[in-house]
Every structure is written in C-alpha cells, then in structure tokens.
Write a structure and sequence with these properties.
Layout lengths: L8 E5 L3 H13 L3 E5 L2 H7 L7 E5 L7 H11 L5 E5 L16 E5 L4 H15 L2
Parallel strand pairs: 1-2, 1-3, 3-4, 4-5
Length: 128
C-alpha cells in the first residue's frame, strides 16, 4: 500500500454501474478502500458515514441527487471532503461553493490522475 492512501476509505455514489466499476478500479489501483453505492439512499441507508474519509458522488441521479446527498451527509459529517462529478457542467452552477473548500467538482470525462490527486488532498483533510 502507498503511504498516501493506506487506510483511507472512499465512498463512491453513482447510478451508472460502469462508472462505479471504473472508479472502483481507479481508486483501488491507488490502494484506497472503496465502498460503492448505487444511489444516495443506498449510502444513507447502509453506509457508515463515520468510516468514510472522502465522498465521491454523481450529481445527476434519480431520487436524491448529489447536491441533496451532500447536504444530508454534511448534517452528520459537516467537514467530510467531497468530490461531485457530472456530465452536465451547467448543473454545477447550482452548487454553493462557499463550503470551506471541502467540495471539489469534476466534469465527465475527467482525468484519472487528476481525480486521484484530488482524492489524496481530500483524505488528508479528513484526518486533520
């Protein structure tokens, strides 16, 4: 395991199974422990938010979208670092950026190395 990612848990929420699998492979290649969830309700219902060091969530999902999910997660874990991803960059205009820098946004398609770098920064913040 690498020094940077050893012991860190990243939760990934996306309604697209192929995106979930791709992000799982990418994150595991950097030695992160990955928890996959097919919806926001899935994470909220069975995810242990206290064990998560970083949340990656799609924005555009049926039911609880990524913005609502993040608001609900932050009710319990106010400073949990998060990365929102979307295929529709205009939807990011709806997100309030004044959250202390704990949320980054990526537009699909994104660079795997750039996402891994962002996760590295995020997980280090979560343990401070």
């Amino acid at each position: 395991m690498s020094e940077i990612s050893s012991g860190f848990v990243v939760a990934v929420v996306d309604d697209d199974p192929s995106v979930l699998k791709s992000l799982e492979y990418l994150l595991e290649s950097a030695d992160y422990t990955v928890r996959l969830f097919a919806s926001g309700a899935d994470l909220l219902g069975r995810g242990n938010l206290q064990e998560i060091d970083c949340l990656i969530s799609d924005v555009d999902m049926p039911g609880i979208d990524g913005f609502d999910l993040l608001r609900q997660v932050r009710a319990t874990r106010a400073a949990l670092p998060a990365i929102l991803i979307t295929g529709y960059p205009d939807t990011l205009k709806r997100f309030p950026v004044a959250d202390g820098g704990n949320t980054l946004c990526f537009t699909k398609p994104f660079s795997g190395p750039e996402l891994l770098a962002a996760v590295g920064v995020a997980v280090r913040k979560s343990r401070v």
